[in-house]
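Still learning. Any example?
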Amino acid sequence: MDCVHRRFLKKIIPLLCVAVIMLCFSHTSSAQVEEEMQILRMFYKEKDLVVSPTRHPKPISHVAENITVVTAREIEEMNAHTVAEVLNRIPGLFINFIGGVGSFGATSLIHIQGSDQRHVLVLVDDVPWNFLNSGAAETNSIPVGIIERIEVIKGPASSAWGSSLGGVVNIITKQAGTAKRPSGSVSASYGGRQYSDGLLSSRNFDNHSLYSKFHIPLSDEVGIGLSVGYSEPEIGIGDFPSADFTQKGESRTFFTTGSIDASLTGELEFNLSLYRFQQKSTLMNNALGLGMSGSAGELYLDTTYDEGKTGGSGKLVWAYGMHTAVLGMDIEKGDLDQSLHAGTMLQSMGLPETTVTHPDIEKWALYANDTMVMDRWSITPGIRYDHNSITGSFTSPSLGITYRLGEETIARASAARGFAIPPLSWTSGGSLFLDPNPDLEPEKVNSYQAGVESAALRYLWVKGTVFRHELEDALIIESSGGGPPAFNDIYVNRGDIRRQGLELEAETIPIHNLSLLAGFAYVAFNPANDEGSDKMHSYKAGLKYENRKSFTAQLFGSYVWWDLDPAYKASYDDFIWDLNLNKIISSREKTSAKLFLTAHNLFNGSQYTFGDIKNPKRWVEAGIRVGF
């Protein structure tokens, strides 16, 4: 065992000892706890189950991780078009919209508590959505209409999910049905597709998608499931005058999953799932004709990433008495075909006209966790062993504890060791002006979080969390100092970074159908990150009116201080306010119709992270949403 693991265990063992000692002296009866659960009312519903922390459903009141859940109903009331718009509502998540906040279908980078975008694992029904080449995930290929809920773990979740140093965004799609007869659902946006010809010049978005999901019960104890999804977003990202090129992208995403669930005994369950995921993304850059990149319309650089992943997982769940134990295994093989086509300008700098690479990676992992519930306590130890063909092996332990302080208050604490695998292009494929480094190791983190959630005040729910993430072997770029050919930079493991901060959230219970919400998040970096920021903070604020029978209204504002280097020529001095109105005009057993209106950027605020790509000013959309 290396010294890093020993230091981590020295910190986590005292926490476990304290928990055991306090448990020994706790005499609260289960009946008392159940009575208190009844008092917790709307904010602590025992039936509200989440699956992401341990990969098996458990009450959110037993979850030690810093987790946020967004439901399908909340997404619909936001009138959101993309997953990124939904995530932008969550304190602690910093969404960098390439094209500015409010750009329809804009590409986006997800940062959790100041993490890099490659550190955030995005899943759709347990299928990893992240690109092999960059490690990041693009969510505008995921139709929001298929989403049942989104569970976001803020902080590393490597003991359950592997490479997820920054956190997890787990997207769970709507159920096909639970009837004893075969059932299914089909969702298609072809013919009713997402389309915008651009709120600003050179920007547009067009997406066709199809999704279907089926459930087939073979018996009372065994059921199988199948899902198939396809989407093809095309986006005009915009003009970059400072670099003299315009950029647009297109992608094709296909995935299919198959699963079988079986109840072996009253205490033992088994699940097996398999998936195939294919994603082809092309980014096209052409000269604007300002003299730096060639004549107007001339090819500057086209990059194509064609990747496929085949994988599966199996797990056993044993629930007996105070224990809910999960034992599982994951396996995946990924292949990447990467090609770069350089224009005459880049060729003059030494780049070959075409560069093609074919890196691949194989991964497997074993994981185990156990949620132990004793009176006021819930304790969840977890551990996972990962191995991949590029960087070798990594072990991720974790420990989470929740304690009910009173009738309406829960305290949470967690400690975890996590990691992130370097992107495949950085280890094996290379990229523009970048040499691959096959000696790269995973980035590592020791993470600690603690928080309190309470509805003790009569009309107010509050939640506060503090966190500290200590990164080791962080990837930094280093110039090799070489000349042509132009692939002359390289990534190395030389960084130690500390991210620490806090999150605050509050929401009033509805009074005369009206409620208020607010959120604040702050992150400090030591040293500053790659964009020159040594701190970031954000504010969220909202006013909601909800007459559940027929009408809802929301006014929501978001502000982010990115603290970027002045070279970015960014602007983020304003709140961005959106107004959402929804009116039910017809509601029957199997059909419904709803009018909606959204006024985006109500007060014409400016919030963008790069001077070439500014956000749209005020724009309004309205229509009718029909469900059947």
